[in-house]
Design goal:
By secondary structure, the chain is of the alpha/beta class. It has 2 domains: 3-166, 3-Layer(aba) Sandwich (Rossmann fold); 184-287, GMP Synthetase, Chain A, domain 3. The chain is 35% helix and 23% strand. A 6-stranded mixed β-sheet has the order 2-3-1-4-5-6, with helices on both faces. The chain has a 3-stranded mixed β-sheet with strand order 7-8-9. The protein is globular and about 55 Å long.
């Protein structure tokens, strides 16, 4: 008997969805930073064994959109409700169960297994946690509730074991040697964007898009040319920094992470260009890959 299925991860920003995805995969597949709205796309990670294939899908955090980019990010999250064989709704000990009630109403109407994962329980106590579990049980009566801590890996293995039990019988959807649906260039853009999220403040990281214009790979090394697009000339100056020091730091840190990711020597050049108001342009968003197929 072979099992296979899509296990889709949804939830609000900054509750640890990407960290959890990386734990399940045992690979660094999703950006995981301390800033909200880190994930912008729907990212699949595939775990294969002799008798099962789990296709995990990490989605952008659920939020009320303020501009066109956030509308497309919400569409990615809502698409995860349509093809899930198992749904993981990730929350934490700070978030209130009634947040984003419109999205939760759609979750309630699903007829697939739902696991509510209450993350960051290392920041709570037994009494508060029991009260929170009761609130979530009232909010989603059909769901199974799992208190977890992605930080210390508490209860994560039990969740993974339960997922395996819930998978439907099915042949594999992807080849046994495939571990993601994204091309190599995608992970280059995500790693560069992660460094921008880490090293710049306020609105700058959210006004940035990264595009790989050249990716030439040999047996030993990879030559990469990438462009950081911003919305304003002033943002371009901030990204580059005084005498180019800020951009150099991003490039250096991105290159180090890319070398670990690909296990090859990386030659990385990054340029900065302005694409005015790209986050509010349907045409530009489609060009950057934010439209659902």
């Amino acid at each position: 008997m072979h099992k296979a299925g899509f296990v889709n991860i949804v939830g609000n920003p900054n509750v640890g969805k990407s960290t959890l995805m990386n734990l399940f995969m045992g690979e660094r597949i999703s950006i995981a930073t301390f800033k909200a709205q880190t994930t912008r796309h729907r990212i699949m990670g595939i775990i294969n064994s002799d008798d099962a294939q789990i296709v995990f899908s990490d989605t952008p955090g659920v939020l009320k959109p303020n501009y066109k980019l956030q509308e497309e990010m919400l569409a990615f999250s809502e698409s995860a409700l349509q093809d899930a064989d198992v749904l993981l709704y990730v929350t934490d000990v700070v978030e209130k169960p009634e947040k984003n009630s419109d999205f939760l109403d759609k979750v309630k109407r699903m007829d697939v297994p739902i696991l509510v994962l209450i993350n960051k329980i290392d920041l709570s106590n037994q009494k508060s946690l029991e009260a929170l579990v009761a609130q979530w049980k009232e909010q989603l009566p059909q769901a199974e509730i799992y208190p977890i801590s992605a930080k210390v890996k508490f209860n994560v293995d039990n969740v993974l074991a339960r997922i395996r039990q819930l998978l439907p019988e099915s042949p594999a959807y992807f080849g046994k040697d495939q571990w993601t649906d994204k091309p190599a260039r995608f992970f280059v853009t995500e790693i560069i964007r992660e460094k921008i999220l880490l090293y710049y403040d306020k609105e700058i990281p959210y006004a940035v898009e990264v595009v790989v214009e050249q990716f030439k790979e040999t047996d030993r090394n990879i030559h990469i040319n990438a462009v950081i697009y911003v919305e304003r000339e002033s943002q371009k100056g901030i990204i580059i920094g005084h005498k180019g020091f800020a951009l150099k730091k991003v490039s250096t840190e991105a290159r180090k992470t890319l070398e670990k990711f690909f296990d090859k020597t990386i030659f990385l050049e990054i340029f900065v260009k302005v694409d005015k108001d790209w986050r509010s342009s349907a045409k530009r968003l489609e060009a950057y890959g934010y439209k659902l197929n």
